[in-house]
Design a protein that fits this description.
Helix content of chain A is 39%, strand content 25%. Chain A is an alpha/beta fold and 245 residues long. In chain A, helix 3 packs across helix 4, helix 3 (97-107) runs parallel beside helix 5 and helix 5 packs parallel to helix 6 (172-187). Chain B has 497 residues and is α/β, with parallel strands linked by helices. Classes of the chains: A alpha/beta (245), B alpha/beta (497). The A-B interface holds A 51, 53, 76, 79-80, 82-84, 86, 88, 90-94, 103-104, 107-108, 152-153, 155-156 and B 394, 396-397, 399-400, 402-407, 410, 414-415, 418-419, 422. Bound molecules: adenosine-5'-diphosphate and magnesium ion (MG).
């Protein structure tokens, strides 16, 4: 089966420092992959290379849906296919919730205002906040904001969603509502790469777990493979530390 | 060759302009010195020789007067139209500058007996086809702000069909614009122009305009000093001293019938205003009479301010974007532009644009020159303001826009600039206030803005009320903006708490 996302020998230098080291990763259509690992291991860098928020070294190659991810005319197609959800939501504070979700379809997808509004309201309904459509992000709770951010990321009908620690900035009582939305999406067959520290959630929702350390993919496999039968000492140490907390 | 000659001329002109901008004062001596205000550069009455020494007919005369009063003397350079308020406020004791005695002025100041009978004159470029006042239909004429020439030209504008009267702050800039061709003729005192054109074949005095009028020294109204000086002048005339000065500066003795030779009465104190504070500074009659002039000036000021603010914002934003996002060369260029034009005083830039560019073939109208200078400087400031605003937007806003696939233009237009602008509105409003205030500098390039109209009005009426009124008008326009800035700043800081 063809991979929807393919990373071949991908490295990333910040000056002399290597944030990613020769990463190879294939994600099939409909697959849900969770990336775990200690802080500073390169998880964010990895997913940010996939939609080119970070430029990776020339030696490697990333393809998304058959398109090589590099600066240029094709980048538009890549970004149209890849939605992203950030740790800090990054909603546009000067726009209402509805306008946040409508913006990309109108500007990039160039669909009519009515069609964009209809789509946005449907998406907001899916994440359970259509009744807040005319409020501004500052008037919403963190959990609500993150659900809006997910709706916004879905507005371009992307094949792929990237999540970078979507619940790390949330108060504990709001984590659940966001994870539920992501779980629902996983069930609908959206391809996802999720960077997360929520181990229970990762185990439950993922087809595959990728463990990273020091810029490398150390080990990957099914949730059972990793959580119950990890072979690499670094993975075991990490899991032990996390579970102790 | 040609260029060398031009650049030499240009240097000479700039030096003479510099003399006009930088006050020169003769050595000050003693506490009891007579303070004399003079519009230095007004040949042959008071000007500087190549050594920088103050010389001239009136300088010689006032020196002799001081000697006989047994007082030292200090000369201060004040533009012609500033002399009136200077005597009225006692900042100077005597004003000299070939000031014509008029009925209107006598209501507010005093004069000693006259010592020179003058007329106005028309000066043109030697290669011009204009030969008399009658040829000035639909032409632009230059005058000195608030001078007798100004008064005459304003009264006769309709009759001769002058297209526009452009008002200058002295002989040098007016003569320069005549040479450049921005004005077709220059109406000014005949002795000054005859003396000035003596060694300048490119300019020619072609017509005497019979306005009459005699010059004398001017004093604060009812100042005792006027009487003493008047008496000394009587003596000096009887001794032939005054006519010797005429001989020295004009090469001939004046006729016996002129006020240079003949002792005359001191100009009568006109039944005029009692000069208390109100009548001097807040004179209702003068205010009512000059208000239409001021309002005309206000429209010019607002037009200039608005054009400069809007275009300054536009180019400032463009510069900020270039400075932040363009390829390296353009970025560096924008940075240099921003730094250079925030360092150059606006007045200097304005003078260079107005008086220097014609030498490379670019001759701008006063409005265009003033607007250009204001836009150049304002855009440099707004560029920095916009940059600070854009840089204050969190990185996540850029990343979210990019991740959504927005183009650079849409990212800026829909996401970044609306937020950045909101942050910098107080600073932008502040800058706009400065632009409007700076429009007053356009006076130097003969723009009839509010300040210019006010100085003209106060010179004609010899009363500072129009200046006070102009200050009030500036306040009315700018105070709401200042208050709006405070309000916005408060609101913004609250929101950020
Ligand atoms: N812009 C940057 N410049 C220099 N180093 C960076 C930059 N961004 C990330 N890094 C470094 O790269 C490494 C990986 O970072 P990151 O991908 O954010 O880790 P993680 O998301 O796994 O916590 C870290 O050591 C971090 O300090
Ligand atoms: Mg991270």
């Amino acid at each position: 089966m063809d991979s929807l996302i393919q990373l071949k020998n991908v490295s990333k230098h910040y000056g002399k420092f290597m944030a990613l080291r020769y990463v190879n990763l294939d994600v099939a259509e409909g697959e849900v992959v969770s990336v775990i690992g200690p802080s500073g291991s390169g998880k964010s860098t990895l997913i940010r290379c996939i939609n080119l928020l970070e430029h990776y070294d020339d030696s490697g190659k990333i393809t998304v849906n058959g398109t090589v991810v590099r600066k240029g005319a094709d980048l538009k197609n890549v970004r149209a296919n890849v939605g992203m959800v950030f740790q800090n939501f990054n909603l546009f504070p000067h726009m209402t919730i509805l306008e946040n979700v409508k913006l990309a379809p109108m500007r990039v997808g160039e669909i009519s205002t009515e069609a964009a509004t209809k789509r946005a309201l449907r998406l907001l309904d899916n994440v359970g906040i259509s009744d807040q459509a005319d409020k501004y992000p500052g008037q919403l709770s963190g959990g609500q904001q993150q659900r809006v951010a997910i709706a916004r990321a879905l507005a371009m009908k992307p094949k792929i969603l990237l999540f970078d620690e979507p619940t790390s900035a949330l108060d504990p009582e709001m984590v659940g509502e966001v994870l539920n939305v992501i779980r629902k999406l996983a069930g609908q067959g959206v391809t996802m790469i999720i960077v997360t520290h929520e181990m229970g959630f990762a185990r439950q929702v993922s087809d595959r777990i990728v463990f990273m350390d020091a810029g490398q993919v150390v080990e990957s496999g099914t949730p059972a493979d990793i959580f119950d039968g990890a072979k690499e000492p670094r993975t075991l140490t990490f899991l032990k530390n996390v579970l102790e907390q | 060759m040609h260029f060398q000659k031009l650049s030499l001329k240009f240097v000479l002109i700039l030096t003479s302009l510099a003399a006009y901008l930088v006050p020169v004062s003769a050595a000050s001596t003693g506490e009891n010195a007579l303070i004399v205000g003079a519009n230095i550069g007004n040949v042959p009455w008071e000007f500087q020789d190549t050594a920088g020494e103050l010389i001239g007919f009136e300088i010689d005369l006032v020196n002799e007067v001081a000697k006989r009063l047994d007082r030292a003397i200090e000369v201060i350079n004040i533009p012609f139209n500033g002399l009136f308020s200077a005597v009225q406020s006692s900042r100077i004791d005597i004003a000299i500058s070939s000031i014509t005695i008029t009925e209107q002025r006598l209501a507010s100041v005093s004069f000693a007996q006259p010592y020179y009978d003058s007329d106005q004159s028309l000066t043109i470029r030697s290669d011009s086809s204009i030969q008399s006042i009658n040829d000035l239909q639909d032409e632009v004429v230059a005058v000195d702000t608030g001078s007798t020439g100004d008064i005459w030209a304003s009264e006769n504008q309709q009759q001769y069909g002058f297209k526009e009267i452009r008002r200058y702050e002295g002989l040098a800039p007016a003569a320069l614009d005549l040479q450049i061709g921005r004005v077709a003729g220059y109406i000014s005192d005949i002795p000054a122009m005859q003396y000035y054109t003596k060694d300048k074949p490119e300019l020619k005095v072609v017509e005497r305009i019979d306005t009459g009028g005699s010059y004398s020294m001017m004093f604060r109204k009812d100042d005792e000093l006027a009487l003493s000086v008047n008496e000394i002048i009587t003596n000096l005339k009887q001794e032939g001293f005054v006519n010797e000065l005429h001989n020295k500066w004009f090469g001939v003795l004046a006729e016996e019938t002129t006020s240079t030779a003949k002792v005359t009465a001191m100009p009568g104190v006109k039944a005029g205003l009692l000069l208390n504070f109100m009548d001097t500074f807040l004179n209702k009659a003068v205010f009512v009479e000059t208000l239409p002039m001021l309002l005309l000036g206000l429209t010019t000021t607002l037009k200039l301010g608005l054009v400069s603010i809007v275009l300054g914002l536009f180019f400032g934003l463009l510069l900020a974007l270039i400075r932040l996002y363009a390829p390296a060369i353009a970025r560096v260029t924008a940075k240099i532009y921003i730094n250079v034009f925030r360092s150059i005083p606006l007045l200097v830039l304005l003078i260079v644009i107005f008086y220097a560019l014609p030498f490379v073939g670019i001759s701008l109208s006063p409005f265009t020159a003033a607007a250009t200078a204001l836009i150049i400087v304002s855009s440099a400031y707004t560029a920095e303001i916009f940059r600070s605003g854009i840089e204050a937007i969190p990185k996540g806003q850029f990343e979210a826009s990019q991740a959504l696939g927005l183009s650079f233009v849409h990212m800026m237009k829909d996401v970044i600039l609306p937020q950045a602008t909101r942050i910098v509105i107080p600073s932008l409003t502040n800058n706009s206030i400065n632009v409007i205030k700076d429009t007053a500098l356009a006076s130097v390039v003969a723009m009839p803005d509010l300040l210019k109209q006010a100085t003209q009005a106060q010179a004609i009426a010899a009363n500072p009320t129009p200046l006070i009124a102009a200050a009030g008008i500036y306040l009315l326009v700018l105070l709401p903006m200042v208050l709006a800035v405070s309000h916005l700043e408060k609101k913004y800081s609250k929101r950020n708490q």
